[in-house]
Amino acid sequence: MDDLNDLRIRIDEVDREMIRLLEERMAVSIKIGNYKIANNLPVLDRRREKLVISKNLSFLKNMEFKDEAEFFINCMMELSKNAQKKLGTKAFNQKEYSGKMIKEGIAYKQKEVTVGFQGVLGSFSEQALHEYFSEEVKTKNLAEFEDVFQSLQNEEIDYGIIPIANSSTGGIAEVYDLLRRYGFFIIGERIIKVDHHLLGVKGARIEDITEVYSHSQGFQQCSEFFREYPDWKLIPYKNTAVSARMISEENNSEKAAVAGKRAAEIYNLEIIKEVINNNPQNFTRFIIISSTMGVTKKSNKISIMVSIPHKPGALHDVLSPFAENKLNMLKIESRPIAEKSWEYFFFIDFEGSLNDNNVVNAIEKIQENCNYFQLLGNYERHEI
Question: Which residues are catalytic?
Fold first, then answer.
């Protein structure tokens, strides 16, 4: 039988070697991060990640440890991405980015571009897209939120537009997670009023309805209306407009959709019941994402993401620079960190420009007091 002390000595030796290799890997990751900054490349490369995992698992001799090895590789890559994202913010604070990032106007005004959105014609995302960019831009509709991010990463689109929060139901968790994982920037926003209607085929009556289709957010925003019809089956679907299109194609008077007026017009549906959302002042905030930063003279809103040490006063230390530098915080929202129970990412919006010394001072102070920092963007705030 092996001696326990000998085994512990061997563990210590392995740990020392792992720390040495971790330092070496992080040093190389930082060099890669500097290259990405210099060439305006996104931090996240899903294809590269899959290749790294597959290649390293092929070196494993004892396949009983496959799950543990995959978890270990994912943790290493997450540490590397965090280091690279921090680099991007430090580079800005050192003014190394200023020539590339400070622009007189957004690029779409100078050239023809393609903008990606989740959903189909008639969706609220498409409406927000055209309100922000105009009717002339090319558009590409995509099935899922992550498809928009992947298309932007693969340079199939120039910009993406994604809903991030609703005035009635709050933030959309999936979108926050995608922003963190892909490392793209917010370059603009558009807030639109969202009125949901109950739509059916021509001639359908409310007494006929047995099933209703919509995005889960649509159901949440109309929950009070649906309490009046407890026998209806509510079926979550990809998108409000996709639901409307499906109802039109099936042409079944027992099925209905929750969607907007434009979707009703496009898919030739009848509005069975108007404005069924709980809050008559129901607004959704959409963000425009890009692989590169876009700061203009009109940029007056900043979004950041941080994680903080799990200790007393940590959140105060991160938030106090706002008061110290007389900056107005607009919103703070938390998301659980999947890898760490009871620890959170905080998404913070505040007024300001990266050309303002007070803003730069606040960001530097925040960075000193957090475990993780990501600058999501500095853009023009949309007033409603």
Answer: 284, 286
Q: Which residues pair with 142 in a beta bridge?
A: 118
Residue 336 CA to residue 338 CA, distance in Å, equals 6
Please tell me whether residues 143 and 214 are part of one structural domain. no
* Alpha helix stretches (DSSP H) within 313-368: 314-324, 357-368
CA angle 185, 30, 57 (to 5 degrees): 95
Compute the distance between CA of residue 139 and CA of residue 162 in angstroms, rounded to an integer.
13
pLDDT digits (tens, 9 = 90+) for 330-349: 999 998 877 677 778 899 99
Pairing of strands 270-273, 283-290: unpaired
Please count the structural domains in the chain: 4
Report the DSSP beta bridge partners of residue 138.
114
Residues 237 and 337 in one domain: no
For residue 48 the two structure tokens come to 């590269």
Query: What is the maximum alpha-carbon separation in the chain?
Result: 83
Quick one: which H or E segment has residue 160? strand 159-166
Tell me the pLDDT tens digit for each residue of 50-79: 788 888 888 888 888 888 888 888 888 878
Order of all β-strands in the sheet with 329-336 = 329-336, 344-351, 301-307, 372-379
Q: Are 178 and 43 found together in one domain?
A: no
